[in-house]
Amino acid sequence: MHALERIALVDDEENIRETVGFALEREGYAVQTYADGAEAWAGLESALPDLAILDVLMPRMDGLELCRRLRSRSETLPLIFLTSRDEEFDRVLGLELGADDYLCKPFSMRELLARVKVLLRRLALLRSAAGSETSAAEQLVVDGLELDLQRYSARWLGRDLSLTVTEFQVLCALVRNPGFVKTREQLMRAAYPHDAFVSERTIDSHIKRIRRKLEDADPVCEAIETVHGLGYRFRSRA
After folding, report:
1. Which neighbouring-strand residues pair with 6?
2. Residues 6+ apart with CB under 8 A from 128
3. How far apart are CA 82 and CA 75, in angstroms?
4. Which tens digit of pLDDT belongs to each residue from 80-115?
């Protein structure tokens, strides 16, 4: 079923590479395993996988640096971090670098497989829409922001925004109701419709990254407003 879906698993723990790799292969995925970030980058630099699972703490090159390099190659590549429960700083930094999700060790294999399926489903939707024509009904345009709902692409004041699929869904949820507050829980449901495991801190990290990208296109952009104690809203100038 997943014959063409390739997953890169990068972890310095041999036991995790073996157990997770076996579980993924049993689901029908083609799995490439690497013992550290440097080995993974050497193997993936010329050909990216369909999804990557990265440990945070690894010798030679850690998961954060590998994430940064992979993101420089593709904004749509689904990335999942594996992290210890006491590594909150690294976990949040990973999301700010562009990871789509994370799991704290120890984790259940069922939970990991569920997240892999969700992210690959989004990637399939993105690819299937890439070659299709876009109608007006498949676009959201508010002030200087244009969202193409088929191609998962965004433009601010005529400039392209390189958003991950998760970032796009968070921004889309805000833009659908400009001026209205969206709670973190509502944004979590929009970004992870099949996933009940993410935390509110995850949404905060995605918002921070979206803001940074908007400011790169427009240094005075203040389109996303924090409503303390409630959530976020997209500020329409109308």
Report:
1. 30
2. none
3. 19
4. 988 876 666 666 777 777 788 888 888 889 889 988
Q: What is the mean pLDDT of residues 194-218?
A: 80
Instruction: Please write the tens of the pLDDT for every residue from 144-194.
Output: 899 988 777 889 998 988 887 788 889 999 999 899 999 998 998 887 765
Which of helix, strand or coil describes residue 10?
Answer: strand
Q: Output b/e per residue, 42-67; b: 16+ Cβ within 10 A.
A: eebeeeebbbbbbbbebeebbbbbbb
In terms of domains, do 111 and 154 share one?
no
* Packing angle of the helix pair 63-73, 88-97 (nearest 10 deg): 10
**Is 125's pLDDT higher than 80?**
no
How many C-beta atoms surround the C-beta of residue 208 within 10 A? 13
CA-CA distance, 152 to 147, in Å (whole number)?
7
Element (H, E) at 231: strand 231-234
pLDDT given at position 200: 73
Q: Does residue 1 belong to any structural domain of this protein?
A: no
Boundary (domain end) residue, out of 129, 150, 179: 129
Q: What is the 3-state secondary structure (H, E, C) of 61-108?
A: CCHHHHHHHHHHHCCCCCEEEEEECCCHHHHHHHHHHCCCEEEEECCC
Residues 9 and 34 sit within 8 Å (Cβ to Cβ): yes
Q: Is residue 208 part of a domain?
A: yes
